[in-house]
Amino acid sequence: MKIDAQNYERMRAWFARLARETIPAQLRTAENDPVKCLDQLAARWPAKARSGLATAIGDTIEATDGWPRDRVAAIDIELVHEGLPSLTAMRFQFSKTISRVVRCGSIKNEVEYYAVRNAAERAQDDQEPLWELLSEFEQRPAG
Length: 143
Known about the structure:
143 residues; mainly alpha; 0% strand; 69% helix; single chain
């Protein structure tokens, strides 16, 4: 997902909310607070801030990979209640592997297969397109 001027504030708010969950408080000082640094960058170079925010969101999503389903479900509810995209939705949007597979319309190898399977299993929304890609891959002859 590309962050543009129209969705920057919403994505910034999402990142700020998840930073509280993924970055320990003792590591978030006034000097290195990621949202404050992002805001300083945005004041001078908005395009760089958007690019940096996309990277930061990707890193944040990666930091949540090991979260159990119940924690993801709980934060999804909180985020949606706050008017922000769910973590599950953001994982789907920002996953490079998933995006590439969806864009190409096929799974090429086992690495992509397991990435897509994890995304489909974690998602709470309808992920029928992912399940269809998985089924197509599973039906291919081995070799």
